[in-house]
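Sorry, can you check?
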Amino acid sequence: MTPVQLQTFSSLAIWIPLLFALVKLKTGEIKFRLFFVFLLFGALVDGFGLIIYYFLPHDLFNYHGIFQLFYLWFEALFFVWICFYFLEFNKRNKWRNILLIGFSGMFITEFILRIVISIPNNTFFAFIHSFFLVTSSFLSAFALLRIAEKRGEILRYSWFWILSGIFIYCFSSFFVDMLSYTAIGRGIWSIRVLANIIQYGFFVVGLLKINNAQ
């Protein structure tokens, strides 16, 4: 499978967990509703990119980059929020808010530099994305440990699978994002795409077990 075909498959694969999430949306949990919005946002942005690549002039990718950056910002906020939801320690809300504000500041800065001033991809942008992924890796790992401590049969708990997918994606992608502005990073970008597809697989398993989580 070529890199383009792999990316296309990844962009289409998100619709599988999205449709499962739509069916399960009646659960009413706030964290599950935000998870659905996260999937829907990603599906729309990826779908827009596919339409541009196959049917429209490629210079429209400049507009796609704007939507993609806003999606990455939302992804960062959602990952932090959902991981802290399962953590319990003193000043939890304070540290959660610090990370939410910090990531927001970094992505707003990137938006100004990349979109408004038109600065090309560089070390600073790579640092923002890799720092977010590393942080989310640690947070999701601690959240998984907390779930394991509180629940007996974790394999029957939907959020164990969803958080596992987030952990695998973040842990497998941070090194790629760190080198994204280099030829090496572009050469190994398929690793990130594969991690994304695996993440969707974990999401589907988690959604299939959503009734056990209620």
